[in-house]
TrEMBL record:
Domain of life: Bacteria
Binding site for Mn(2+): 344, 368, 534
Name of the protein: L-fucose isomerase
Organism annotation: Paenibacillus swuensis
Domain L-fucose isomerase N-terminal-1: 14-181
Cofactor field: Mn(2+)
Length: 597
């Protein structure tokens, strides 16, 4: 990991606390259960540390209570240990009956789950039901985990269905815990009247536990003019860019094309902008060495947005290179974790990107949900008949300038196109992503100040999940989810469709999975029901994890195509109704209110 990455993650990560609870009766009962109960805790910790990693690539750490918890004194000692150890998520495990309200985790801000062992020798399932009833009564939503098959007493294995729920809850819980106390950095203000770039501090504070930080875009000018960046890194970055970032054709009419001298100046400016934006987000100890101690600290931001249009881009090179490179898993400093930066300061799409990133540790594609292409329209315009995943139509996802270079699909997993955590990306894969991208001189009619836009075509065959947060007056935030696949089109068909919009921008052809119901009756309906002009696209089908995370944060989901059997929410959600889970979700989220209200 690079020095900047070590600096970026120096504050560490939340740990998962494992709470082995036990029947408190001595003189035979508790003693007979100590070994089995603690073994459940150790097995849970081992499962999590083996399968889950933090954004820096290190295994997730677990903290196990120092003793089994048989009553309130031991529960309090465990809570004290967790507070001192930086625990942000708790999992209670038990094979037996315990005293519910005496042993439960009472911290209202910590996501919590309970695994009750399904065995007939001791009533772990009875305790699970009792303690979840107590959580519901006290207004503390908790996830219940109970294996489908009866296990033998003392069996140390964790059933597959239980493993899935433990890991799904842990991923979402860690995402929620890691966001807490961090910041969204608004670089500029509202872009072109886009409502998502009206940064809503109440949403970030009450639902995500985050601060909102703000800088005017003139801060970029100050730092460029006064050399408040690392000159050595700038020279290194510029040389790397000249070697690895191929400049594509200039599509502007000849009379308004910029000169070669101006283009070279733009390259220098956009590289400086990239370094400065990163420093604004996470800080840079090198600045302190240069005499800028305040600037060296950064804004503790795990996500940011850049307004750009129009006040910046009417005069300066656009932010496309900056956004594309920061969102990618590599740059002149090597392969590293991506930064999350929202185009046009769309903070709500930035939040969705952050969710996807924290659940997968992979880069996220920011895109306009631009056009629905019906099979008939494609046939009329190109003569081509859509087949396979695309047979019911396509969504043209194309951002007006940048998108993560990981989105090319030039990385591979099991021989297929993929987007991977940075620690799994090879140098050859990073180079292929760079080689598949050309940097097109910006369309001057859009971007009067010049700059460069990343141009690539996403490879087909990747499972992908598109998501978006919208704010609704009177309700608050709602989340929408669409799982699907990236699609390959014949080159001549892609060219015809792509040239109908700006060909200097990156394209992903996306086919959502249809269910025949609700918003997923057709691809047209998905487009028609999408709540805004932007979407965040993550590699993999992660809709179930997004739903789990949303329930932790008390954000209802207004549309999704996730199989019902994969959905995992707190047990209390069922007490708001079981016949219509979507309506129950809205009622539960409204009842409990935002996590940090």
């Amino acid at each position: 990991m690079t020095d900047s990455q070590q600096f970026r993650f120096q504050s560490g990560f939340p740990k998962i606390g494992i709470r082995p609870t036990i029947d408190g009766r001595r003189k035979g009962v508790r003693e007979s259960l100590e070994e089995q109960t603690m073994l459940m805790a150790q097995s849970t910790a081992a499962l999590i540390s083996e399968h889950l990693r933090y954004p820096n690539g290190e295994p997730v750490e677990c903290v196990i209570a120092e003793s089994c918890i048989g009553g309130v004194a031991e529960a309090a000692a465990c809570a004290d240990l967790f507070a001192k150890s930086g625990v942000g998520v708790s999992i209670t495990v038990t094979p037996c009956w315990c005293y519910g309200t005496e042993t439960m985790d009472m911290d209202p801000a910590i996501p919590k789950a309970v695994w009750g062992f399904n065995g007939t020798e001791r009533p772990g399932a009875v305790y699970l039901a009792a303690v979840l009833s107590g959580y519901a009564q006290k207004g503390l939503p908790a996830f219940g985990i109970y294996g489908e098959d009866v296990m033998d007493s003392g069996d140390p294995t964790i059933p597959q269905d239980v493993q899935g729920k433990l890991l799904g809850f842990a991923r979402a819980g860690l995402a929620a815990a890691y966001m807490r106390g961090k910041a969204y950095l608004s670089m500029g203000s509202v872009s072109m009247g886009i409502a998502g770039s009206i940064v809503n501090d109440s949403f970030f504070q009450e639902y995500l536990g985050m601060r909102t930080e703000y800088v005017d875009m003139t801060e970029f000018v100050r730092r460029m003019d006064e050399t408040i960046y690392d000159p050595g890194e700038f020279e290194k970055a510029l040389a790397w860019v000249k070697e690895n970032c191929a400049e594509g054709p200039d599509n502007n009419p000849e009379e308004i094309q910029t000169s070669r001298e101006r283009k070279d100046q733009d390259w220098e400016t956009v590289v400086k902008m990239t370094i400065i934006a990163r420093d604004l987000m996470i800080g840079n100890p090198k600045l302190a060495e240069l005499g800028y101690e305040e600037e060296a600290q950064g804004h503790h931001a795990i996500v940011s947005g850049f307004q750009g249009q129009r006040q910046w881009t009417d005069h300066f090179p656009n932010g496309d290179f900056m956004e594309a490179m920061l969102n990618s898993s590599f740059d002149w400093n090597g392969i590293r974790a991506p930064h999350i930066v929202a185009t046009e300061n769309d903070s709500l799409n930035g939040a969705a990107m952050l969710f996807g990133y924290l659940l997968t540790n992979t880069a996220q594609i920011f895109a306009d949900v631009r056009t629905y292409w019906s099979p008939d329209s494609v046939k009329r315009v190109t003569g081509h008949t859509l087949t396979g995943a695309a047979e019911n139509g396509l969504l043209h996802l194309i951002n007006s300038g940048p998108a993560t270079l990981d989105g090319t699909g030039e990385q591979q997993k099991d021989g297929k196109p993929a987007m991977k955590p940075f620690w799994d990306i090879t140098q050859d894969e990073a180079q292929k992503c760079l080689d598949a991208t050309s940097w097109r001189p910006a369309s001057v009619e859009y971007f009067r100040g010049g700059g460069y836009s990343s141009d690539f075509l996403t490879r087909g065959g990747m499972p992908m999940t598109m998501s978006r947060i919208n704010l609704v007056k009177g309700i608050g935030p709602v989340l929408q989810i669409a799982e699907g696949y990236s699609v390959d089109l014949p080159e001549e068909v892609h060219n015809v469709l792509d040239l109908r919009t700006d060909s200097t921008w990156p394209t992903t052809w996306f086919a959502p999975i249809l269910t025949g119901a609700g918003a997923f009756r057709s691809v047209y309906e998905v487009m028609d029901q999408w709540g805004a002009n932007h979407g965040s696209i993550s590699y993999g089908h992660i809709g179930a994890d997004l739903i789990t995370l949303a329930s932790i944060l008390r954000i209802p989901v207004n549309m999704h195509n996730v199989p019902e059997t994969d959905i995992f929410r707190p047990r209390a959600w069922g007490l708001f109704g079981t016949a219509n889970p979507e309506s129950a979700d809205y009622r539960a989220c409204h009842n409990y209110g935002p996590l940090y209200k």
